[in-house]
Design the sequence.
């Protein structure tokens, strides 16, 4: 909703008391806060840096808080600036203002200036053009700081600017692509997302805003292509009553500042306090931090939500990721395919999100040596956008850290797979893969280049790399069990003794593949049409129904389907009170052909039983039958408690050969949701059900004999070239998913070698 914030009467109506403006300043941070740790500026080469643990990160320099003038007992936010000359500067929020540090040489930082500000634990800063805009919950409105002469060591406080009744702010949000600036959690505009008029950049004036509720922080981006081209969209970590009630993600169109409107609302799993959100570069996924789910015991380890926002009208959570620490996740930013996350007592955590729904930690630097805990000390924020690759971290107790992330930007061997990653490896061996290795400040030991395949039993199979020239190495995959789910990665050692890997997540985690020669999908249902599912019920309400979700997600039901087609099966698909009551509802599939090959059952499920007078008292059961429903076997039971009973789509895949010796053509699955306890609100849904069959055909006795007539001649070459031109899978000899010169080269080589 758009409201004019500058109108005098509305300033009074929309103004907030101080406690509400401080959305999460409930005393937790102030009670937890430990004293600042003083010391001299530490530089690379000064000796061991006081016990900080790290992996894949080098500490270049460290500036404890006592080195900044003004007497600061704590630090908070940070941001960065690159001057027109290319020199790089860190900006850190301090208890009594802001500090500016040149880090062009990251191992020789120079404090350029300190700008005084109001005393507060909270400060936030962003940069548009050559101005830094700082805010605080201690007041002073917006501190406008001129950076145009920073190369000469001069930063000028232009003014502390207040307009429209504005004084205190929790966060300030920038969209440099559009040159726009917003306040979040301020004492005006209901604490919502308040737009600033930037016609005079030295007087950013309170203008209009999205004032439906409190916004703790936001990520605002401009779309340049696709269906939202030309739109400016805000992704808001928000909720009512200072962010506490109905906490979640709101997606808001802020293109027309006089017509701001909500596109969609999304409630993620196990919410406590929606804190911060950031998008992937392609704007397909949003990563969201909840600041209190760890401390409130709602999740066992540091947990960040992954939300698919490719359809702004229908966001959906598709997963989570964790560093496996117990700390609170606080502020994260995405650079290229990497996520940089400042997580209080576990410091900076760096994740490789090459697979954006399965980020994996590849590096960390812990700024808080006292150990992990779910309290408010340690790393507050980070900034990873300097062209040099330098990353800074602001720490509440220990000041500014300047880091080099060696796992990404340091001296290394750069290993890159040639072509697409194969999702299947020939179970009989023989899939060919190639990598190129570039020496980036390290020298390769060629004899160490290898490919490692880890089978389903955890056994490692190693294949040496065969050099083919120009830094390229070729590998041949080993024999594996049919339909085995495996991981593979490549490794090489430098003459320095250091090992390097592709992907960067290896050796902890490699790329996934199935050992199979082919696959088919004999059954798939996105529930857009009726394929013969049946329902049964002993309950008084909440029967299974197929359709587009209409409940809005307010009672634990899904707001959207899983696969984006629109429809799914869900219990009691009606707005309002639509949960399962006083009995059991059963959804049964038609007969599906799971015979032949190695069959897997796949589906997405949603289950919530955490509301009501007696929450977590019921279960969701999945059963399978191999004889058209004559007998049923339990496949899985969800609940009554655990991490998957809070709603949220969960995708599952089961190897049916582990359930039945010979899966049949009369295979069925059924989903059973029950309300047998004394007051749970039970909601369930199912989507994207399929059978995937993997084939494992032995290769011919003489592979180049394409027509199997026992003679190698022109007709075999002609047969191969015809399949190659038609992009037949049998002509993809390298198994890389492409038809190119390497396939022809491999065929001609095997043809010349003849039959055994």
Sequence:
């Amino acid at each position: 909703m758009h409201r004019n914030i500058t109108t005098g009467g509305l300033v009074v109506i929309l103004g907030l008391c101080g406690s509400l403006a401080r959305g999460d300043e409930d005393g937790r941070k102030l009670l937890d806060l430990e004293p600042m740790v003083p010391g001299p500026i530490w530089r690379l080469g000064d000796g061991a840096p006081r016990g900080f643990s790290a992996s894949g990160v080098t500490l270049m320099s460290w500036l404890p808080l006592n080195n900044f003038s003004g007497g600061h007992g704590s630090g908070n936010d940070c941001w960065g600036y690159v001057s027109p000359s290319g020199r790089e500067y860190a900006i850190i929020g301090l208890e009594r203002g802001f500090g500016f540090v040149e880090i062009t040489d990251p191992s020789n930082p120079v404090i350029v200036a300190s700008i005084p500000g109001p005393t507060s634990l909270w400060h936030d800063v962003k940069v548009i053009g050559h101005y830094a805009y700082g805010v605080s919950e201690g007041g002073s409105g917006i501190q406008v700081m001129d950076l145009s002469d920073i190369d000469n060591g001069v930063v000028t406080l232009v003014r502390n600017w207040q307009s429209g009744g504005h004084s205190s702010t929790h966060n300030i949000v920038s969209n440099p692509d559009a040159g726009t600036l917003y306040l979040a959690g301020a004492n005006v505009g209901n604490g919502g997302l308040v737009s600033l008029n930037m016609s005079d950049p030295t007087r950013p004036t309170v203008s209009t805003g999205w004032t439906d509720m409190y916004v703790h922080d936001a990520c605002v981006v401009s779309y340049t292509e696709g269906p939202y081209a030309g739109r400016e969209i805000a992704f808001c970590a928000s909720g009512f009553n200072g962010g506490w009630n109905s906490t979640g993600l709101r997606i808001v169109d802020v293109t027309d500042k006089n017509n701001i409107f909500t596109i969609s609302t999304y409630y993620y799993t196990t919410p406590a306090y929606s804190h911060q959100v950031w998008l992937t570069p392609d704007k397909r996924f949003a990563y969201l931090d909840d600041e209190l789910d760890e401390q409130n015991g709602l999740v066992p380890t540091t947990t960040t939500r992954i939300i698919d926002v490719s359809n702004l009208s229908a966001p959906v959570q598709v997963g989570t990721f964790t560093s496996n620490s117990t700390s609170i996740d606080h502020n994260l930013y995405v650079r290229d395919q990497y996520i940089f996350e400042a997580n209080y007592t576990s410091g900076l955590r760096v994740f490789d999100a090459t697979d954006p729904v399965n980020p994996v930690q590849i590096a960390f630097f812990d700024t808080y040596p006292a150990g992990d805990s779910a309290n408010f000390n340690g790393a507050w924020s980070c900034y990873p956008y300097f062209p040099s690759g330098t990353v800074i971290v602001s720490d509440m107790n220990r000041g500014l850290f300047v880091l080099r992330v060696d796992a990404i930007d340091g001296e290394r061997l750069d290993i890159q797979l040639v072509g697409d990653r194969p999702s299947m490896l020939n179970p009989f061996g023989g899939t060919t893969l190639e990598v190129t290795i570039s020496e980036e400040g390290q020298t390769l030991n060629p004899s160490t280049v290898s490919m490692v395949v880890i089978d389903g039993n955890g056994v490692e199979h190693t294949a040496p790399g065969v050099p083919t020239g120009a830094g390229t190495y070729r590998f041949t995959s080993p024999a594996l069990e049919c339909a085995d789910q495996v991981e593979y990665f490549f490794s090489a050692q430098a003459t320095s003794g250091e090992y390097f890997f592709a992907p960067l997540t290896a050796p902890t985690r490699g790329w996934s593949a199935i050992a199979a020669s082919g696959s088919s999908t004999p059954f798939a249902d996105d529930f857009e049409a009726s394929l013969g599912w049946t329902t049964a019920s002993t309950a008084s309400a909440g029967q299974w129904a197929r359709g587009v979700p209409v409940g809005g997600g307010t009672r634990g039901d899904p707001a959207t389907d899983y696969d984006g087609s629109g429809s799914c099966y869900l219990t009691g698909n009606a707005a309002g009170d639509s949960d399962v009551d006083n009995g059991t509802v059963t959804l049964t599939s038609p007969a599906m052909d799971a015979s032949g090959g190695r069959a897997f059952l796949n589906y997405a499920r949603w289950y919530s039983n955490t509301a009501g007078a007696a929450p977590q008292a019921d279960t969701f059961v999945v059963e399978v039958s191999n004889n058209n429903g004559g007998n049923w076997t339990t496949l899985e039971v969800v609940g009554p408690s655990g991490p998957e009973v809070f709603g949220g789509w969960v995708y599952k895949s089961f190897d049916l050969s582990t359930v039945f010796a010979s899966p049949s053509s009369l295979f069925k699955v059924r989903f059973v949701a029950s309300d047998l306890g004394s007051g749970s609100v039970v909601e369930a849904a199912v989507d994207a059900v399929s059978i995937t069959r993997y084939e494992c055909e032995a290769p011919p006795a003489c592979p180049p004999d394409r027509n199997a007539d026992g003679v190698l001649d022109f007709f075999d070459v002609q047969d191969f070239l015809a399949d190659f031109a038609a992009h037949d899978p049998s002509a993809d000899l390298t198994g890389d998913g492409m038809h190119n010169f390497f396939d022809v080269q491999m065929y001609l080589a095997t043809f010349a070698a003849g039959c055994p």
